[in-house]
Design a protein that fits this description.
The chain is 0% helix and 54% strand. It is mainly beta. It has one domain. The strands form 2 sheets. It has a 4-stranded antiparallel beta sheet with strand order 5-4-3-6, with no helix packed on it. Strands 1-2 form a two-stranded antiparallel sheet.
């Protein structure tokens, strides 16, 4: 996946930054039968200071997020 930067209304493609690791964001809900159901909610990026920027496409009804290494 290539990152893009926007300058002067043009798109410049850059190679992915290895220092910007991606993480997958899930919520885990237990069904009535006791089975765990994992639902992907978004993606997170690791910053240089090891903090995370999290981008969600939904909101977990249980209020819990599970962040894992992004599957390659």
């Amino acid at each position: 996946m290539k990152e893009e930067s926007f300058t002067d209304d043009t798109v410049q493609e850059r190679p992915p930054r290895p220092d910007r690791a991606r993480k997958a964001v899930y919520t885990i809900v237990e069904s009535k039968s006791g089975k765990s159901i994992w639902t992907k909610l978004g993606i997170a990026y690791v910053n240089r200071d090891h903090s995370l920027n999290v981008f969600l496409e939904g909101f977990p009804v249980n209020g819990q997020l599970h962040i894992r290494d992004f599957p390659e």
